[in-house]
Amino acid sequence: MPGELPDRILIDEILPPKGKVASASSSEPSTLSSLPGTESEVARFLAKWLDNWLRIPGTNFKIGLDPLLALFPGVGSSVASGGGLVILVEAIRCGVSIPVLVRMSGNMLLNTLFDFLPLGGPVVSAFFKSNLRNLRLLQAWQAGRQREVRRSTFRMFLALAFFLCLMVGLLFALFAFYVWLLRQTGLFN
After folding, report:
1. How far is 64 from 66, CA to CA, in rounded Å?
2. Is the pLDDT of residue 163 over 70?
3. Domains held by the chain: number
4. Is residue 54 part of a domain?
5. In the chain, count of helices (H) and strands (E)?
6. Residues spanned by the domain of 82
7. What is the pTM of this model?
8. Are strands 22-23 and 54-55 parallel, antiparallel or unpaired?
9. Which of 89, 133, 134, 152 could be cross-linked to 104 through a Cys-Cys bond (beta carbons 3.0 to 4.6 Å apart)?
10. CB 103 within 8 Å of CB 87
11. Stretch among 70-79, 96-105, 107-116 having the lowest mean pLDDT
């Protein structure tokens, strides 16, 4: 009958990037992360404009809007960090693991901290290119190299833990040396 409701309502189609069509009735999920080698156009666009937009004449070095916006304290850094946040949201949408998200967030945090350094911060930010780093991690994850990304992230966290322990050890040794020096001079008894 024409006025009768169907038993099952099907969603028309889900259109992933690159024009591949997945029907809603198909058994396999059609998420962005299930398609190897596809990354979000938005993430790629933002990484290009924030980190590799303009080639410096006479060199092969490129800078983006991120270090240029950092020249405007507060506002510029907030706008650039907002663009980087979109890349993080794309990573979350693609199912990137928590340690990799922490690594990507650390890249953004370091870049933001660089922006707060007067004059030298934007220069360091131009070389660090946190958005391109995060895009490469996202692309590697989507290309099916999750194990490789996790392993490199684990190594990075392990190296950070080693350097943190080294710094704590050096501070403790320095403190012990000062206490010993003060006892030798008789100022501390």
Report:
1. 5
2. yes
3. 1
4. yes
5. 7, 4
6. 13-144
7. 0.63
8. unpaired
9. 134
10. no
11. 70-79
In a domain? residue 169 = no
CA trace torsion 170, 171, 174, 180 (10° rounding): -120
Question: Would strands 13-14 and 22-23 be described as parallel, antiparallel, or unpaired?
Answer: antiparallel
User: Is residue 114 situated within a structural domain?
Assistant: yes
Q: What is the pLDDT of residue 9?
A: 52
Assess contact for 129 and 166: CB atoms under 8 A: no
- pLDDT above 50 for 31: no
Q: Which pair of tokens denotes residue 151?
A: 């392993």
Percent of the chain at pLDDT above 90? 10
Q: Is 42 part of any domain?
A: yes
Q: How many CB atoms lie within 10 A of CB 96?
A: 24
Element (H, E) at 46: helix 41-51
User: Which distant-in-sequence residues (6+ apart) come within 8 Å of 140 by Cβ?
Assistant: 148, 149
Between CA 188 and CA 173 the distance in angstroms is 18
| Beta strand extents in 22-103 (DSSP E only) | 22-23, 54-55, 62-63
Q: How far apart are CA 131 and CA 59, in angstroms?
A: 21
Tokens of 89: 């949201």
Tokens standing for 5?
Answer: 């409701």
